[in-house]
Amino acid sequence: MTGRSNNMSVTTSSSRRLATAACPPPRPQVRKPPGRLACVVAILVAAALPMSAMADRIIRKDLNKDGQVDQVAHFDSKGRLRLLEVDSNGNGVMDRFQHYEDRQMVRVEGDLDDDGQIDVRDYYADGRRQRQERLGPDGRVRQKALFDEQDTPVRVSQDTTSDGRLDTEWQYAQGEVVTARRDTDGDGQADVWNTYTEGQPVRIQ
User: Fold this and answer.
1) In this structure, are residues 171 and 179 in contact, taking their beta carbons and an 8 Å threshold?
2) What are 80-114's pLDDT values in tens digits?
3) Alpha-carbon Rg for the chain in angstroms
4) Is 28 buried (19+), middle (13-18) or exposed (0-12) by CB count in 10 A?
5) Helix H segments across the chain?
6) I want to staple 3 with a disulfide (CB 3.0 to 4.6 A). Which of 55, 76, 112, 190 is the partner?
7) Cα four-point dihedral sign 140, 114, 147, 145
């Protein structure tokens, strides 16, 4: 979505402006970095066996000793961890899926409501989360967030009308929303801008 120059006049109805101002800034899904804790058992098992023994292996573990598997580690043909399935809430359903490449976690997928569908994806690089995608029931991206090195959001885009377009974008500074812009007519260009103070809209253009 590309914005128009602020020098251009913007014509919107008062109801549209009020609706845009009232639209609350979104909060990305807060997730603890899972790679350091959830894969500890898989790493220990891998370290205890030769690489040849881990090739194409699937190892299931019951970490809390309740009789149910709560972690499943998948290894590639070279004995490297490629996927770790985790039951994070102990209900017997795998709800977190950590994907690895070259021994580095690159993506974490989460099923937040245990319905068997992925609801959120976190993308990692160099050990930190860089991007998050929230998915709708149809599997399409409904919200996208970018993070800084402190794992605080710097930009969030959202599909507020469920039409497949990310029509609204919020900019953050030190974790607080400062500006927002919205494409209200679906032409791919922003036509409403908001300025925020302490999380509340104070100016609309």
Assistant:
1) yes
2) 899 999 999 888 899 999 999 998 999 999 999 98
3) 21
4) buried
5) 14-22, 40-48, 51-54
6) 190
7) positive
